[in-house]
Design a protein that fits this description.
The protein contains six helices and two strands. The chain is mainly α. A two-stranded antiparallel sheet has the order 1-2. The two termini are 21 Å apart.
Length: 152
């Protein structure tokens, strides 16, 4: 049987009142998103998928290049761009966190040209990957921080 004295309940109540959930959320996002979201974005690109779940368009026009991509183990469907040539563009994908936004983009010099051709929807995790990130990466960190802030 668990017994909580009045002092213990008051202490716990005070900890909950002092809890800064927004700060805990921001710290948890800053710890996890910059590591996980860029890699999810790269994997989606390799599969020819945008953050909205749709294929990257426009389709490749160079049939020979598309055949070579497929022959060399490309993961994207035939004629679907994967935005991987040298790897520099994808290696330079980062995620930044501010108080109100989570933004994923590439700092590679080719980024503006690729964004213009394929739209900024090439960046960011799709809904399935966001759910995976939330449960596998963000939730454990968030719960650990909440526990530390309330229980001690």
């Amino acid at each position: 049987m668990l017994y909580l004295g009045m002092g213990t309940i008051a202490n716990l109540t005070n900890r909950f009142k002092a809890l800064n959930f927004d700060l805990i959320k921001q710290e948890s996002l800053r710890e996890t998103a910059p590591l996980i979201i860029p890699e999810m974005t790269r994997e989606q690109m390799r599969q020819g998928q945008r953050s909205d779940g749709n294929p990257i368009v426009p389709k490749l026009e160079d049939i020979r290049y598309a055949i070579d991509k497929e022959a060399n183990g490309g993961l994207a469907p035939f004629l679907t761009p994967d935005l991987f040539h040298t790897g520099e563009f994808q290696e330079n994908i980062i995620t930044t966190i501010t108080a109100k936004t989570i933004k994923t983009f590439s700092i590679d010099l080719k980024a503006p040209k690729l964004e213009l051709r394929y739209t900024p929807l090439i960046y960011g995790a799709n809904s399935a990957n966001l759910a995976k990130y939330a449960t596998e990466n963000l939730q454990p960190v968030l719960l650990s921080r909440l526990k530390a802030a309330t229980v001690g």
